[in-house]
Amino acid sequence: MRIAAPLAMAACLVATSPALAAPKAEDAIRYRQSVYTVIGWNFGTLADMAKDKQPFDAGEFTLRADRIADLAPQLLEGFPPGSDTGAKTGAKATIWTDRAGFEAKMQDFVDAARALSQAAHGGDEATMKERFKATAGTCKACHDQYRSRN
Ligand code: HEC
User: Fold this and answer.
1) pLDDT tens track for 46-91
2) What residue owns the CA closest to ligand 1's atom 30?
């Protein structure tokens, strides 16, 4: 039993976890575009507040910064090998040929999003706006290099 139980659990995980199966390219493309869409939706509100197009609201800012910080680390799994084609995509093929460069840009974004969320919880408006700009810079840095559609 001491050996069988973990084995049975492992078999169960293999059968039910989609993360362990190779995803279909079209599913991966839909997944990452969806995550970017949700990030963009939340980022838009932050942008409006940072540019004074919308009154600054620390609670609203924090809610959206937290969502982005949670979503950012979920993006990389949306770029499995072979998902450079298979559905309409704005992902450049260099994402897969220059993987280290792409992953570094992704890490910059994950780090910036975490710092943005931390600043939001700190409660200082000027720092939040600064962190917003820094995060926006990491979106642009990746898009400039690895995204073909703007
Ligand atoms: C590490 C690279 C990288 C970072 C960082 C990044 N993006 Fe993107 N983004 C991409 C790529 C690549 C695509 C194209 C995905 C596709 O079409 O398969 C994309 C697509 C998008 C899309 C379009 C999704 C769709 O439905 O086609 C939006 C919106 C978007 N990004 C917003 C953002 C915002 C906002 C940020 C920062 C807060 C950000 N991205 C950060 C690489 C990145």
Assistant:
1) 999 999 999 999 999 999 999 999 999 999 999 999 999 999 999 9
2) 36
